[in-house]
Amino acid sequence: MIGRRRDDIPLRRDGTARFLPWLIAPTVYLAAIAIAFMLALGGALQEWDRGLAGTMTVELPPSAASDAAVKAALTALRGMPGIASATALGRAAEGKLLAPFLGTAVAPEELELPRLIDVRVATGAAPDLAALKARLAAAAPGAVLDDHQQWLDRLYALALSVEATGLAIVAMVSAASVLTVIFTTRAGLAVHRDVIELLHMMGARDSYIARQFEREALRLGFAGGVAGLALAVVTIWGLGHAAAATSLVGEQAALLPELRLVPWQWGALALLPVAAGLAAMATARITLLRALARLP
Amino acid sequence: MVRFENVGMRYGTGPEVLRDLSLYLPPGSFHFLTGASGAGKSTLLRLMYLGERPTRGLISLFDQDLSRVKRRNLAPMRRKIGVVFQDFRLLDHLSAFDNVALPLRVAGVAETRIRQNVTELLDWVGLADKLAARPPTLSGGQQQRIAIARAVIARPQLLLADEPTGNVDDAMALRLLRLFEEMNRLGTTVVLATHNEALAARLGHARVHLENGELAAP
User: Fold this and answer.
1) Which residue in B50, B94, B103 is closest to A6 by CB distance?
2) Both A164 and A187 in a single domain?
C-alpha cells in the first residue's frame, strides 16, 4: 500500500547479500572465542600473580638438608628486614604437595627430597634479595632462594604469545569480514546499477544511496553477529566445564586455567554483534561512496 | 538556461555521435528535438540531464559552466531537471505512487506533502485508481504516464523527455503535451525529443534538428 514506504533499492530481493550473515557468524564466533580466551587467561594470570605475591620459597638440596641447616636458614631469614615469617615445611606437608603426582603409596621419607621453607614478605615491604641470598648462602650453603619471578616471567611470556595469537585471529577474521562486505556491496552495486544511476540522475546525494546499503549491511552484520555469538557462548560454557573437569585435587589444582568470565567480560562479548553490524555498515558506506564517486 | 559550445561526444573509443554542437535554449522556452533514429537525440538529452560528460566543448546549465561545477553541487542541479526516459525506467518493485514520489523523497520533501502532491498528479494523469499498482501490472501507456508524472512532480526548471508520447493514443498524447505546455507556461524550459516531426510541426514550437550528430535545418 502507499502508506508503507519501501526502500528505493530492492536490496532484500536479490541474493547477493543473503549469505552475508552466514559468513559473518563464523568470524564473530572465532573472534568471541579468541577474546574469551584472552580475557580468561588474563584473569588466571592475575590470580596466579596475586597468589604468589609476597611469597618466596627457600629450597635446601637433599645434600644440604640437615635439620641444623634448616634451622640456620630460618634464623637468617627471620633476622632480615621485610620478612614477615619463615616456616619450614615438614615431611607431611611435602608429601601432600607430591601426592597428586606420586600418589600416597610412596612415603616422602623414602625419597631424597629437598627441604622447603615457605617465606612470607611483610605487606608493602620489598626485601633486598641480593642481601638475602648472601646471608642464606652464609648460613646454609647450597640453599636456593626462589622468588617465583622466573616462573611468573615465563607465564607472562606465554600469556603474551597467546594474546598475540588471539589478536592475530581477531584481526584476520575481521579482515575476512570486511572483505566479504566489500565484495557483497560491490555485487549489490552491479545488480542494482540501473536503480542507482536513476537515483543519481534524480539528484540523490551519494549519502542518500549509501544509506540504503548501510542499513542492509547493519542488519545482516548484526544478525550474523548474534548467531556467531550464540554459538560462541555455548562453546565457552562447554570449554569452561571441560577445563574445570581437569582438576586433579579440587579447584586449587586445576590443570588448565579456568575459562570463567566475569559479568563485564560477558558484556564486552555481547557487544560483538553490534561491532560486527557497525563494521559492516561502515565498510558498505566506504565501498559505496568510492564507487559512486566514479559516476558523472 | 542551456548552452552548448562546440560540444562533441563519443562513447569510449567509438566515433563521435555528436559533433561541434552549439546551441542555446533560453529560460522558459519550448523546443522539440527532432531527428531520425540514431541522429544523437538521446545522447544530447543525456548531456543535458548530466548523465554524461561531453568529450569536448563547453556546456552551461542554469548559467553555470559545468566544467567548473564541483561534483557535490551537481546533485542539487540535477534536482532542477525532470526527465522522461524513452524506456520509462520505472522501478518494478515500487508502486506507481512510490515511483512518482521518488524525486521528492530524494529532495527530502515531507511525506505529508508528498502524499498530497503525488495523489493529485496521478489523478490528473488518469491513474488515481492505480496508486498501489506495480509497473509490470500496467500497460505501456500507463507506465509512460507514471514516468511523466515522476518527471514533473518536483516542478523542474528544465524538463527533458525522450519520445514521451510514443506509447499512448492520440487523445492521451495531446493531453500529455498539454501538461508539458502547462509546465512551460509556468516557467519550465521544455525539450521534447521525438521522431514524429508531424507532431512537432503541428504544435508549432521551436525545433532543434539533428542529423548524424550535427545540427541541421529541419
Assistant:
1) B94
2) yes
pLDDT confidence bin for B217, thresholds 50/70/90: confident
Note the ipTM here: 0.88
Q: Could B78 and A202 be called an inter-chain contact, meaning their C-beta atoms sit closer than 8 Å?
A: yes
- Rounded CA separation A153/B87 (Å): 74
Using the 3D structure, point to which of A98, A119, A142 is the last residue of a domain: A142
Q: How many of the other CB atoms lie within 10 Å of CB of A173?
A: 20
Angle at CA of residue B190, ends B187 and B196, nearest 5° = 145
* Number of domain units in chain A: 2
Task: Evaluate whether residue A8 is within a structural domain.
Answer: no
Contacts of A13 in chain B (CB under 8 A): 93
Q: Which domain holds residue A249?
A: 13-50+151-292
Contacts of B95 in chain A (CB under 8 A): 1-2, 6
- Asked whether residue A4 is assigned to any structural domain, the reply reads no
- Residue bearing cell 546499477: A193
Distance CA A194, CA A8 (A): 12
User: pLDDT tens, A150-195?
Assistant: 777 888 888 888 888 888 988 988 898 899 899 999 999 999 999 9
Measured distance CA(B44)–CA(B25) in Å, rounded = 13
Give the start-to-end residue ranges of the domains of chain B: 95-154
* Mutate: best of A1, A2, A206, A289, partner B, most B CBs <10 A: A2
Domain final position from A142, A170, A205: A142
What is the rounded distance in angstroms from the CA atom of residue A225 to the CA atom of residue A285? 19
Q: Do residues B59 and B74 make contact, with C-beta atoms less than 8 angstroms apart?
A: no
Burial class (CB in 10 A: 0-12, 13-18, 19+), B94: buried
Q: How far apart are CA B52 and CA B42, in angstroms?
A: 11
d(CA B129, CA B119): 10
Q: Is A95 in the same domain as A137?
A: yes
Residue A224 counted as domain residue: yes
One-letter amino acid at A231 equals L
| Domain presence at residue A113 | yes
pTM of the predicted model, to two decimals? 0.75
Give the largest Cα separation in chain B, rounded. Answer: 49
Q: What is the pLDDT of residues B166-208, one digit of tens each?
A: 767 777 777 778 888 988 998 999 999 988 777 778 788 899 9
**Residue whose C-alpha cell is 488518469:** B126
Give pLDDT tens digits for B87-104.
889 999 999 999 999 999
CA A145 to chain centroid, in Å, comes to 32
Half-sphere exposure of B78 (CA within 13 A, CB side): 28
CB spacing of B98 vs A204 below 8 angstroms: no
